[in-house]
Amino acid sequence: MDYQLTTPLTREKVRQLRSGDTVRLTGVIYTARDAAHKRLVELVKEGKPLPFDVKDATIYYVGPTPAKPGQAIGSAGPTTSYRMDAYAPTLIALGETGMIGKGKRSDEVVAAMKEHGAVYFGAIGGAGALLSKCIKKAELVAYEDLGAEAIRRLEVEDFPVVVIIDSQGNNLYESGRKDYLSTCGE
Amino acid sequence: MREVEVSAVTAAVKRLCIEANCNLPGDVRRRIQDCRSAETWPVAQNVLDQIVENYEIAQAQQAPICQDTGMACVFLEVGQEVHFTGGALYDAVHEGVRQGYAEGYLRKSVVSDPLERKNTGDNTPAMIYCDLVPGDQVKITVAPKGFGSENMSQIKMLKPSDGLEGVKKFVLQVVEDAGPNPCPPIVIGVGIGGTFDKAALLAKKALMRPLDQPNADPFYRDLEAELLEKVNQKGIGPQGFGGRTTALGLNIEVMPTHIAGLPCAVNINCHVTRHQSAVL
To answer: How many folded domains does chain A comprise?
Structure first.
């Protein structure tokens, strides 16, 4: 199925999505990589407020290149998601409903997605120049000292993603490969 | 002796850092297009189309192809008749990286200490590899290396009794372990022989050999073709969504080794396999 969805992504919206669906996302998403996730989870442990509201939020695992004059953002493709696996379940429990990255996730992350209702999207890794065209605005939210790894609020239009793992735990990395190989009979 | 001012090295490294990050080499483009033509799986065709569109946008706008503009791996082949003047050679290389990553709006992705993890802010230091060669020229190759794929690389000290089958098994296992993580379609560099460290260096150098230039030794040329075919029978496909095009190419480099050993290193690169060279 092809969907056009507007953020915030409520639990109802993400629960309808199935692994393999293509989605064009419009609205606000937040950037965070390993270093920012580490700080966010430390704040949670200390009972302190987070620099943005994670309820129904989508986090994009990206560290963009610097914007040239006149650009909203530089090249901005996804980074490998497993480095966020240690932190993602905490944020999912707090209401994060969407993650955008690339690559495999841990069983713990998938269990949290199923329990709370969250979806893992893939964007095309290595297509940073193409993806940046869908990002209309970027502003700093927190952790400027982290440079490319700071948390930014992005306004996106028709940002193209694919559902890799849905809220039932179905996984495109497994089914896509199996379906392709089933067409390759000797 | 021929004198080379190190400021010329700085200028060349700066230019190559920017060019390499914005322009995909012709051999990689041609291979992506060939794989697109051979690809039968619609999802994979769509991903490859977007990969082509991405590098075309990057070239037209001189924007980085990928946001991971990498650690700057700088390979120097220095003619032994060359005398550098005006400063230290390696300082000049680092300065070129500093200037290129600033002026090219490239991402600064280097931390000063692997455990403390504070960003150096200018993408230095470069990873410098220097070979002394005959002649009076200096060849500089800048190969920005992204870490999504670097992290999926492995090395194994195989036993001599593991032999050819052991090498094949290890290479295929590394690709299987990597799965969708290193942004397939990937390029695979295999280094066999030498010592622990030399095998890894061979694997990295293998990534810089053009994809349309097979190993000169017929035995290794055939092994490259056989392993690439086996990799592309795995079905991982572009981005791991399924399909034939798991790898664009596989290059093998070998060197003599010890009677007791069979080191084998596999360095993985993504479809954004970047390298640009200049000769001073």
So the answer is: 1
